């Protein structure tokens, strides 16, 4: 009974954390040619804007809203300022898209977003060159290493920010925007049930992604799949697992990003297959001819399986897939030891395993 009561109290506390309504006061400046500012409350998808009129490059708004609601101000389709409603006055600059005056939490949120944006601007030329390059290996490995480092550093920034701000709700926005960069362990760190932001509605999408990722997290056993092989014969995933390491590779003929990834799969297969490494491709195609045409044209010379059900595939549910390419690396005991290894990360992991 004590546990039930404790849970009930926790739920009441969680629900009421966002029910208290407090006043917000916001002033700001904007380009003098701008006639209005778009204002959103807990609406990062920008579906229902309120309009704030602008006069001589200045605007202001006062209202009553839930404590910890996320406030979003925009003067264009691509720029804006984010803040949480903590009851402290805000002064914002929509010319430079930054907070001039506000609470410590809001100023630190703004600083975090400024840093991420600055890094993204510096990184854009590297990404542009990389995505125009279709050659894996030495020509592209330096670029990919730079990309991997950028994403790793950014995801670490997200985690560190969330750990520092357990007692306010600003991480809700940070997680919503950048959760796609997080691996399972990082997700566990930032989605702390005891944090002030855990029950914020803006986290619903990230929590869903985490639940999906949990189905293929490192440390659990693989899930059986009942499919057909490229010859049309019934096949189970377990037939191809055993005393070796196997990459179960989720892809589809229509998946553009896989065209880059498959170059690394070929390299990995060539280097390590004789040492026991294997790949089992699991396609999310629904058209058999498209599936087989790509297997042939791309020379995917490893085991290929599919149930030809597209996004209704058994693999979607069992492995929590909401985007491809994706993969799991399975050890000789049937345990998942790594998830969603891309490009050089896969090569690094195999080099570690085979010490080559």
Automatic annotation (TrEMBL):
GO terms for cellular component: cell envelope. It holds the Pfam family AhpC-TSA. Residues 1-19 form the signal peptide. The keyword Signal applies. Its main location: other. Residues 216-356 form the Thioredoxin domain. Gene3D superfamilies: Glutaredoxin. It is found in: Cell envelope. One of its GO terms (biological process) is cytochrome complex assembly. The keyword Signal applies. InterPro entries: AhpC/TSA, Thioredoxin-like_sf, Thioredoxin_domain, Thioredoxin_ResA/DsbE_sf. Keywords: Cytochrome c-type biogenesis, Disulfide bond, Redox-active center, Signal. This is Thiol:disulfide interchange protein. It comes from Segatella bryantii (Prevotella bryantii). The lineage of its organism: Bacteria, Pseudomonadati, Bacteroidota, Bacteroidia, Bacteroidales.
């Amino acid at each position: 009974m004590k546990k039930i009561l404790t849970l009930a109290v926790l739920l009441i506390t969680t629900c009421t954390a966002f029910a208290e309504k407090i006043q917000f006061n916001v002033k700001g400046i904007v380009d003098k040619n701008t006639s209005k500012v778009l204002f959103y409350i807990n609406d990062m998808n920008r579906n229902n804007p309120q309009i704030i009129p602008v006069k001589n490059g200045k605007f202001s708004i006062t209202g009553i809203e839930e404590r910890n609601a996320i406030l979003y101000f925009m003067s264009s389709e691509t720029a804006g300022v984010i803040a949480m409603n903590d009851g402290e006055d805000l002064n914002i600059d929509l010319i430079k898209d930054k907070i001039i005056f506000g609470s410590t939490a809001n100023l630190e949120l703004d600083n975090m977003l400024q840093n991420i944006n600055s890094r993204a601007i510096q990184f854009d030329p590297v990404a542009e060159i990389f995505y125009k390059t279709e050659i894996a290996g030495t020509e592209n490995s330096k670029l990919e290493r730079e990309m991997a480092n950028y994403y790793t550093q950014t995801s670490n920034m997200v985690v560190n920010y969330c750990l520092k701000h357990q007692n306010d709700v600003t991480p809700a926005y940070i997680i919503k925007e950048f959760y796609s960069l997080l691996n399972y362990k990082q997700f566990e760190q930032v989605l702390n049930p005891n944090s002030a932001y855990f029950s914020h509605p803006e986290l619903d999408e990230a929590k869903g992604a985490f639940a999906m990722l949990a189905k293929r997290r490192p440390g659990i056993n693989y899930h059986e799949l009942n499919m057909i092989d490229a010859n049309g014969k019934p096949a189970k995933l377990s037939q191809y697992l055993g005393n070796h390491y196997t990459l179960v590779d989720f892809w589809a003929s229509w998946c553009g990003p896989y065209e880059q990834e498959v170059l690394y799969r070929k390299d990995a297969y060539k280097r390590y297959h004789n040492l026991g490494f294997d790949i089992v491709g699991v396609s999310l195609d629904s058209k058999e001819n498209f599936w087989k045409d790509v297997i042939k044209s791309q020379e995917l010379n490893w085991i290929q399986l599919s149930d030809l059900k597209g996004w209704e595939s058994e693999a979607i549910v069992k492995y929590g897939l909401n985007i491809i390419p994706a993969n799991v690396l399975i050890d000789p005991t049937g345990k998942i030891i790594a998830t969603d290894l891309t490009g050089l990360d896969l090569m690094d992991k195999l080099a570690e395993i085979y010490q080559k």
